[in-house]
Amino acid sequence: MVVRQCTSRGITSQLCVRLKEPRTQGRQDMARHSSELAEFRDVFSKAKHVAILTGSGLSAESGVPTFREGGFWRKWQAQVNTSLLSQNPSRVWEFYHYRREVMLRKSPNLAHLAIAECEARLQRQGRRVTVITQNINELHYCARSTNVLEIHGSLFKTSCMSCGNVAVSHKSPICAALEGKGAPEPNTSDAQITPHHLPMCEQGGCSGPLRPDVVWFGETLDSDILTRVEEELDRCDLCLVVKEFVSVCLSVCLSVCLSVCLFHFHGPCGTTLPPALARHETEAN
Questions:
Q1: Which residues contact 28 (CB under 8 A, 6 or more apart)?
Q2: Partner of 257 at 20 to 30 A CA spacing, among 14, 62, 88, 133?
């Protein structure tokens, strides 16, 4: 039963919930499907280890450009790879400077806040909530979630292409040459910043060129992060998937979680998540 469906910037937010029940000998797991919030709330109240998978549909509700479905920045399709970085590092850094500056003006929405509040509340009860996200904007951290796995990296981290050091930077701009650059309009000319004026490594006098510490098209995901994701999905007894209409690198996780889907709520996650994750009447104050 579809409760409600709406789109945000062409992306449909959905909440799908999978319950992992313990196996018993001679009996296979039985999945009982329902879209009633009350039934989900009963299941949620008993869960000890909750995994929440999030994608760009969650960010879109904070007004974040998702660059999905053929999105463009200026006249360029917003898909970056290492080849483009080597050919035009100035353009790549203009694009990511623009994205960083946009995010510094954005705030977590009601869904981010509901997830963070749920994590803190359940932690006090000896229960666990883990957020697994393909978003790179750190809005989960802004909402004060602490147990977050970022499978695509972060806009606010850099990695050195010489020494490999990964560093956190929320500076605005990240380097002086990028100030006022990165405008997204199609008629904007490239700034053509010389490489030695772009972000450089400050670790131990390295001075090597930096790149955003995010996963680009054609790159493999971090094996350590993927191992931790597998561990969380294996341990959890309840999995919530806040998903957009199209998924990329979370597709494996989604295929696992959606294979046994007990509850499926359509609608903006800022509407569906807060009542779903609110304090249950059986929880201690």
A1: none
A2: 62
Give the residue among 90, 258, 54, 70 at the shortest CA–CA distance from 178. 90
**pLDDT over threshold 80, residue 102:** yes
Same-domain pairing of 84 and 145 = no
Q: Are residues 60 and 114 in the same domain?
A: yes
CA terminus-to-terminus distance, the chain = 33
CATH number at residue 266: 3.40.50.1220
Alpha-carbon distance of 26 to 49, in angstroms, equals 26
- Considering the domain architecture, whether residues 88 and 137 belong to the same structural domain is answered as no
Question: Does 142 show up as a binding residue in the annotation?
Answer: no
In a domain, 284, yes or no: no
> Which of 46-60, 95-109, 236-250 is least confident?
236-250
Q: What whole-number distance in Å separates Cα of residue 231 and Cα of residue 132?
A: 11
Q: Which two tokens stand for residue 128?
A: 């666990």
**Most distant pair of Cα atoms in the chain: their distance:** 67
- What φ, ψ does residue 163 adopt, rounded to 5°? -100, -10
What's the CA gap between 175 and 111, in Å, rounded? 33
Q: Residue 181: give its domain's CATH number.
A: 3.30.1600.10
**Considering its fold, how many domains does the chain have in total?**
2
Instruction: Tell me, yes or no, whether 82 and 144 share the same domain.
Output: no
Q: Tell me whether residue 206 is annotated as binding.
A: yes
**Residue 173 preceded by cis peptide, ω within 30:** yes
Q: How many CB atoms lie within 10 A of CB 252?
A: 14
- Is position 210 within any domain? yes
Residue 163 assigned as binding residue: yes
Residues 163, 273, single domain; the answer is: no
Q: Which residues are catalytic?
A: 152
Q: Is 253 marked as binding a ligand?
A: no
In the 8-state DSSP scheme, what is residue 260?
T
**Amino acid at residue number 117:** E
Q: What is the pTM of this model?
A: 0.84
